[in-house]
Amino acid sequence: MSQISILGFAFSSPSQDPSGPGPIHWSILVSPQDGSQATPQPQPKPKKSRFLQRWHSSTQPQQPVFTSTLFDMHNHQLRQQQFPVPVSSSSDSEAESKGPKGGQTTTDITSPFEGKPLRLIIRIALSTHRSDPQKLASRVSTLLYGTPTYGPEDDWLRAALEELIYARILDSETISYDVDGILNYACGAATNPSLGFDYAAHMTRTAQVKEMFSRGQPASKSPSVSPSRISRPANKRASSGKSHSFLGFWVTQGGSGQVRHHQEKRDYWQRQDDPYGGLM
């Protein structure tokens, strides 16, 4: 398992300059998940004769295997180096190609200005990956070689994150990686530098808070209906009937009124079908 992180460097630490660290030099780090320098596993090789083995060992210098690889923009080129940086190679490019001598390392990296190293002030853990750090570093190196190396540091970091997200190296089933969200988080971390930032944990906590607030909101209540509002239309419908105007009078037909007129007693000389008793 591998760990992908963003590292931020500056010429001065916050303790040295209270006004702020100044411009941040961003980089991408691929390291083992637990942060330790794991011993690389030897790869099986085909058997050779003793003579070929001696000749191969004398002509081919052993290349150092980096368990943690740092990628950054240096002198308008993509730089790839071991991290922490061996002390013997931190200031000498030729020694860097030969590998570390001794066991001393440093988290400072060289800058374009001689004698002014960049100091580590920010570390943001982004994501984990199931691949081995060496294999993942080789894949990341191929992707980052296409990033622009001319321009501000933030532009290079944006391009690097876009490549990692598009290649699904920065991928998780629980959180969604967004370039703008990561850049905003990194810029916020620059105001209060620390080595313990964790973007995945931050996004998880944010999602939990949103879910908690969504559960706490009361459901929208429908307006209550009073019994009077229900009875009024019913009474109106019960009392309403077909009405029309006749000689200035409103005449209502049907309903209970018609039944009441038919039940009234009339004399023999009155019309039985006249509901008004001969008044009309």
UniProtKB/TrEMBL annotation:
Residues 12-23, 218-233 have a biased composition (Low complexity). It comes from the Eukaryota. Residues 11-61, 83-112, 212-243, 255-280 are annotated as: Disordered. Residues 264-274 have a biased composition (Basic and acidic residues). This is Uncharacterized protein. It comes from Exophiala sideris.
